[in-house]
Amino acid sequence: MTSSATESWRLDASALVEGYRQGAIDPMATVDEALSRIARIDPSLNAFVCLSPTARAEAEASAERWRNGTPQGALDGVPVAVKDNLAVAGMPATFGSRLYADTIAPQDELPIRRLREAGAILLGKTNTPEFAVEGYTSNDLFGVTRNPWSPDLTPGGSSGGSVAAVAAGLVPVGIGTDGGGSTRRPAAYTGLVGFKPGNGHVPRADGLPQVLLDFEVVGCFTRSIRDAALLDSVLAGSDRADPASRRRPTPETIRRPLRILLVERIDANPCAPEILSAVRASADSFTAMGHDVTQADLPFDCAGLAAVWSSIAEIGLARLLAVEPCFADKANAKYVAMAERGAARSASDLLEIMETVAALRRRVSQAFASFDLILMPSCAAMPWEATTAFPDRIDGQAVGPRGHAVYTGWVNAAGHPAINLPCQVRPADLPIGFQLVGDLGAEALLLAVGAAYEERCPWDDRWPDIAAS
User: Fold this and answer.
1) Please, which pLDDT band fits residue 461 given cuts at 50, 70 and 90?
2) What is the arithmetic mean of pLDDT over 283-298?
3) Residue 146: closest CA among 401, 383, 461
4) 164: closest CA among 180, 143, 150, 179?
5) What fold does the segment set 5-468 form as a domain?
6) Are strands 259-262 and 373-377 parallel, antiparallel or unpaired?
7) pTM more than 0.85
8) CB neighbours of residue 177 within 10 Å
9) How far is Cα of residue 113 from the mean position of the Cα atoms in its chain?
10) Percentage of the chain surpassing pLDDT 90?
11) Over 80: is that where the pLDDT of 453 sits?
12) Residues sharing a CB contact under 8 Å with residue 257, sequence separation 6 or more, in sequence order
């Protein structure tokens, strides 16, 4: 990647850091340019819900460190967008809800603390649907977030604000969460890398309540694999505050060529033809790279998980209903109804869900004895109208609220890592993504394979028109 000093927005984080090291770019100029672009472009996207009041002071301190040759860490001076369900000290942490509209985070939660310790400039918070439980991005507090590639369309969710910010060149990288596909699907809709680590890979503590059991992990949005690896090097690693991070499995030695299972559909669920065509072309690229790609159905059943999926969020919201006195008054009526349905569930219902998840985890773990990666679409539908919660038809078939999301939730329930990569599409076409799912502990493999694919099928010079406005 190359850029003039006045167009640092085109650089990825790795190039910014190298530019700082060489003295060719200044963190102050980078942040000022980012703030200027946000003021000019973001009103048509609504990616950011607040900006850091200390960003320029932090950039000035970063510039001084670079001048002295004493950078604080791997991300010193890099602007980062943070999804508004993650706690950043001194900034709002609204969860996209009027319930938390007046909440100012007293401290960074653990992943954010690691970013700050590495010198990142946490530029602002980005929009998310209320309680981050839907696949598009809109809420009563901040309104609708739009896709930079076509502002009439959604960037997906629940990390829609973060992907819109990165795709439009407002920031080089963004941080979000993934509880059922919320890094991979939005990244697919906006032409980005969306990295979802496995459970425990990025430790969590001191954040907002968890609504989706242990399914939700902190992931990142980048324009390059090297940036995803850079962020992972900062975020990952065990911490005693999160016991799950101390039980990371050690993967077996990976065979070459890789055994890749191509899964085009899950059961009878429809998928947009243009997505299937693009994913098949991506699979052909892996065959051309010398890997063993076999097309087949998933070797395990996801129907049991699909049957209980809606109850998981409802039970999580029921907990908020029980502990937040103003929940029924301030949350959107849709989520109040979900919480009330969750409150009507029994302990036996919750145990059934936990047993269903445990059984799926066993089956997925056993299945990965036969292959190294699963390759499948990240989304079943192309982006839809920005103000609509979900598409009700895909390829001519009627679908429900998660018809577009059938490919991702099982990965969260299983606790496995996955990454969205951009397919190669024509310049005039909307982005399409595919995901690679790895075995437990396969984060490094996913990043390595993604780097090889990126070298063969580069995407870093493609920008939406709005980015250059």
Assistant:
1) confident
2) 97
3) 383
4) 150
5) Amidase signature (AS) enzymes (3.90.1300)
6) parallel
7) yes
8) 26
9) 18
10) 95
11) yes
12) 290, 291, 292
Phi, psi of 407 (to 5 degrees): -85, -10
SS3 assignment, position 438: strand
Dist. CA 137–CA 147, nearest whole Å: 10
The residue with tokens 């911490």 is 239
Measuring CA to CA, which residue among 360, 310, 352, 358 is closest to residue 335? 310
Q: Which residues are catalytic?
A: 83, 158, 182
Q: Where are the chain's structural domains?
A: 5-468
Q: How far is CA 407 from its chain centroid?
A: 15
Q: Which amino acid is at 433?
A: G
pLDDT for residue 4: 42
Q: At a CB cut-off of 8 Å and minimum separation 6, what does 201 contact? A: 217, 236, 245, 248, 417, 443
- Would the pLDDT of 5 be above 50? no
Quick one: pLDDT band at residue 101, thresholds 50, 70, 90? very high
User: pLDDT tens for residues 244-260?
Assistant: 998 766 565 567 899 99
- Token pair belonging to 284: 């052909």
The closest alpha carbon to 177, from 236, 111, 269, 223, belongs to 111
Q: Is 447 in contact with 225 (CB distance < 8 Å)? A: yes
